[in-house]
From TrEMBL:
Keyword Endoplasmic reticulum recorded: no
Keyword field: Aminoacyl-tRNA synthetase, ATP-binding, Ligase, Nucleotide-binding, Protein biosynthesis
Signal peptide: none
GO biological-process terms attached to the record: post-embryonic development; reproductive structure development; tryptophanyl-tRNA aminoacylation
Subcellular location, record wording: Mitochondrion
Catalytic activity: tRNA(Trp) + L-tryptophan + ATP = L-tryptophyl-tRNA(Trp) + AMP + diphosphate + H(+)
Main location: mitochondrion
E.C. numbers: 6.1.1.2
Protein known as: tryptophan--tRNA ligase
Organism per entry: Cucumis sativus
GO molecular function: ATP binding; tryptophan-tRNA ligase activity
Enzyme superclass (EC): ligase
Length: 342
């Protein structure tokens, strides 16, 4: 079976962008692929964070995965920091990563510009190396993510190729290893719709956990009245009718796409249904579709989060399975890099 890995940071609350861009797409892949879904807690400390909240957010994120339909009889769900190989591989990969590659990362540039040099930890710069480790450890074939992770995936691919070139092949064999390719070179899986869900208050910036205003996003656990209020107040425009793909109407395209995805209808059907609608009627339709889609997820979330023994077991099981795969990869790399092994 080909393998798929992906993960979400346990920072802030999981929103519709995380769901439509990533988690929702994981579900349909579980039957065909060997899947591992992690909660990337080690990534969540790259910017100032609340130590009192991290463990709760980690559990919440795990519960949300399951509530959204991740099936633990098929997929492994685990916490990144429970599998030590992530950090171990990161150090080895760091030695093969040119600083220039990291300096070029858009997310690093944006986040560090906002925070200022004296406030930016080294981990914000080296973050993509940890992300590459998350993926390469498991010899993953595909990584289902939203569009904003594309550049990190490209770096992961380049790093895999570089390490294969530097340490793989016959060089590795001469050291007593099996020779050949150390890492599989993974490919991103970016969905045709939902890869970039935009803010409700500005159709030109992406929906994000860190945006100061909660009005800008729909959180997966938002109650019905909060969703209704956010949609009621969201930014629209004054063009007649509703349409997809008009660059002058980013909010309209975004809201129609959200409706398409949560209603499960095709784009063509939504286009016809909504082309002559006004914002007032569409907002009611969208609110109902959102509430109908999210309500069952919220019910399941509440069940799962209240059974902590079950959740602990799922995470322990997942970490065991993940470690057994990850350890092989790290040991191979140590050997290929010439380390004395015990
Ligand atoms: P994170 O936690 O920022 O986001 C989790 C997933 O949600 C997607 N996403 C979006 N998709 C569409 N529209 C949006 N507005 C939106 N916002 C976020 C992201 O693309 C992502 O798929 N570095 C990653 C986490 C990570 C990871 C990994 C992912 C760490 N290691 C290994 C895959 C494989 C991140 O910060 O995602």
């Amino acid at each position: 079976k080909r393998r798929i890995v992906s993960g979400v940071q346990p920072t802030g609350s999981i929103h519709l962008g995380n769901y439509l861009g990533a988690i929702k797409n994981w579900i349909s892949l579980q039957d065909t692929y060997d899947t591992l879904f992690f909660i990337v807690d080690l990534h969540a400390i790259t910017l100032p964070y609340d130590t009192q909240q991290l463990h709760k957010a980690t559990r919440d994120t795990a519960a949300i995965y399951l509530a959204c339909g991740v099936d633990t009889s098929k997929a492994s769900v685990f916490v990144q920091s429970h599998v030590r190989a992530h950090v171990e591989l990161m150090w080895l990969l760091s030695s093969a990563t040119p600083i220039g590659w990291l300096n070029r990362m858009i997310q690093f540039k944006e986040k560090s510009r906002k925070a200022g040099d004296e406030n930016v930890g080294v981990a914000l710069l080296t973050y993509p190396v940890l992300m590459a480790s998350d993926i390469l450890l498991y010899q993953s074939d595909y990584v289902p993510v939203g569009e904003d992770q594309k550049q990190h995936l490209e770096l992961t691919r380049e790093l895999a190729e570089r390490v294969n070139y530097l340490y793989g092949g016959r060089k590795w064999k001469k050291l007593g290893g099996r020779g050949g390719v150390i890492f599989k070179v993974p490919e991103p899986l970016i969905p045709p719709a939902g890869a970039r869900v935009m803010s409700l208050t500005d159709g030109l910036s992406k929906m994000s956990k860190s945006a100061p205003s909660d009005q800008s996003r729909i959180n997966l656990l938002d109650p019905k009245d909060v969703i209704a209020n956010k949609i009621k107040r969201c930014k629209t425009d004054s063009f007649p009718g509703l349409e997809f793909d008009n660059p002058e109407r980013p909010e309209c395209n975004n809201l129609l796409t959200i409706y398409q995805l949560v209603s499960g209808k095709g784009k063509e059907d939504v286009k016809q249904e909504c082309e002559n609608m006004n914002w007032g009627s569409f907002k009611i339709l969208l609110t109902d579709a959102l509430v109908d889609h999210l309500h069952p997820i919220q019910v399941r979330y509440n069940e799962i989060i209240s059974d902590s023994a079950f959740l602990d077991e799922v995470l322990a099981d997942g970490a065991r399975k993940a470690s057994s795969i990850a350890d092989v990869t790290v040991n191979n790399l140590y050997q290929a890099m010439g380390f004395l092994r015990r």
